[in-house]
Amino acid sequence: MQLGLPYLRDETPAPAGPAAVQFLFVRHRRARRYLLRVEPDGRVRVTIPRGGSQREAALFAGRHQAWIETQRATLTARVALPVDERRALMARARVELPSRLRTLAEAHALTVTRVTIRNQRSRWGSCGRHGQISLNWRLLRMPDWVRDYVMIHELMHLQQMNHSARYWALVAAACPEYHVARQWLRDHGREL
Hints:
Order of helices and strands: EEEEHHHEEEHHH
Number of domains: 2
CATH architecture of the largest domain: 2-Layer Sandwich
């Protein structure tokens, strides 16, 4: 491993698991434990913590084979939107989402400098240091109260650019039922 790099990628298939599953091993120096993530293309990303080994990562993935198969089944079950419908939703998102975000920002005395709508695969939104917020167009496909939570989540980063206890206290003050919205995203987010 080269010093200074947070991670290295190794795309060799893992010895554990069915042959149809392609594993992507990523060594990350700040990771504290092994992590699994199923990518949109069906590959399984296995994060290896500092001091971990690819062998242990493969065994870890093997122990979580049922979870991996469930996640991959969810991905294949997701129905792709027709191009026209997707374009219409994207156009609607460019109008509705910035308007709602600015309303929420005003209610919390926050300033948003720029709002962009993106087609992100793994994020619902992001916040930059200078007040710019990006939102995923798929927010339109979730209940209003969950969408508002995602927007509040990003807005609170304007006050605290991390996920510290102070940050979560800001989120809780602005959205007391945020735990319910987070659970909804865990349960249904991949379907969107």
